[in-house]
Amino acid sequence: RDRINYLHTVLSLAISIAEARTVLEHELETIRTGGTWKGERIITSKQGPHINVDGSHGDILNFCANNYLGLSSHPQVVEAGIEALKKYGAGLSSVRFICGTQDIHKDLEQKLAQFHEREDCILYASCFDANAGLFEVLLGPDDAVLSDELNHASIIDGIRLCRAKRFRYKHMDLNDLETQLKESQSSRLRLVVTDGVFSMDGDMAPLKGICDLAEQYGAMVFIDECHATGFMGPRGRGTDELLGVMDRVHIVNSTLGKALGGAAGGYTVGPKPLIDLLRQRSRPYLFSNSLPPPVVGCATRAVELLLASNEIAQSVGDKTMRFRNKMTEAGFTISGSDHPICPVMLGDARLASLMADDMLKLGVYVIGFSYPVVPKGKARIRVQISAAHTDQDIDRAVDAFIQTGRKHGVVS
Ligand code: PLP
């Protein structure tokens, strides 16, 4: 009888697994037939404006990294990572509060607080974690969070984890924000939450208007600066510096995984009591490993370079405008205004994907973005300019766009 029961259990399990497989395969097929499959190309060199891609011959021009300042493979950044690896080892095998805090973690936190001109800083394994770990700690059921409808997925997930009342305002719409601020007036704390720069369109939050409204209605302001830290504003401090509201934005989350060396890691900067509380309560901080020393070493050097000179922060602006102007002249529609994220708007998901494939055949690596990453019908190729691109690199990319755009009837 035991044997029969055993065989029955094994059989049921096999049937469940087969059913799960059918469900998953059906889901995958839906993505494929919908034309929204996201393949991964394999890079066989280090990150930079020129890369090698598995299956493509020779040098490929790369226009889809968030390597805005070209620091991902900067010799000094790489060297600092090697030094930290040698001196401090591969990793901590621990979370921060057990035995995972080294002097280099404290030093990087201090430098990031200085860079953003905020009281204190806490490091996370990623900005996704920083966003996942903030709202639950700061806001309870008596509080309210007011979030731009197009905020990054990690903000949306972080807000889902908190128990505050949720208000979603229309993208960058100050009138709608004001309506929601009025509606949430009875809440104890109110936090307005926005990306500084929205990564899909390269558009910038109207921070001055947001801060005016927040002050009028007694709310705090949070910004996610992943696509701004290092190169927006005269000293690269971010959107808040560019728009003159550094002292009016209370909390900033950002990443070490884009302009600041590109390795990995994220952080929150803001008032000291908030950072102290995050160290006590923020779950992705408490229950996840410390940032590895080589990663800390690379990021620290990147921040030091930016603290030492404003030139690096300024190095991507002219290149961005060269690409935007030439593409617009050629008849393409580029979303956003002057950010190095330059979305070439195409509309159709399949067209974006086919054009990106054709661009690679011409030696230019760009990626098509489609639903669910962007709204349906708003597929695009998102080009990202880096300070490490030369003028010739940019001109070559524009030429390749014109050639493929003509082939697909996008430009004449
Ligand atoms: N926030 C924004 C606006 C982002 O674009 C990203 C990365 O794509 C993140 C957060 C997450 O950053 P990280 O890669 O450090 O987790």
Automatic annotation (TrEMBL):
Does the keyword field hold Transit peptide? yes
Q: Keyword Cytoplasm: yes or no? A: no
EC number(s) given by UniProt:
2.3.1.29
What catalytic reaction does the record list? glycine + acetyl-CoA = (2S)-2-amino-3-oxobutanoate + CoA
Domain Aminotransferase class I/classII large as annotated: residue spans: 59-401
Signal peptide bounds:
none
- List the cofactors: pyridoxal 5'-phosphate
Keywords recorded for this protein, A-Z: Acyltransferase, Pyridoxal phosphate, Transferase, Transit peptide
Could you tell me the superkingdom of the organism this chain comes from?
Eukaryota
Chain segments annotated as coiled-coil in the UniProt record: none
Which Pfam family is one of those matched by this entry?
Answer: Aminotran_1_2
What family does the entry list? Belongs to the class-II pyridoxal-phosphate-dependent aminotransferase family.
User: Which protein are we looking at?
Assistant: 2-amino-3-ketobutyrate coenzyme A ligase, mitochondrial
> Which source organism does the UniProt entry give?
Oncorhynchus mykiss (Rainbow trout)
Q: What is the lineage of its organism?
A: Eukaryota, Metazoa, Chordata, Craniata, Vertebrata
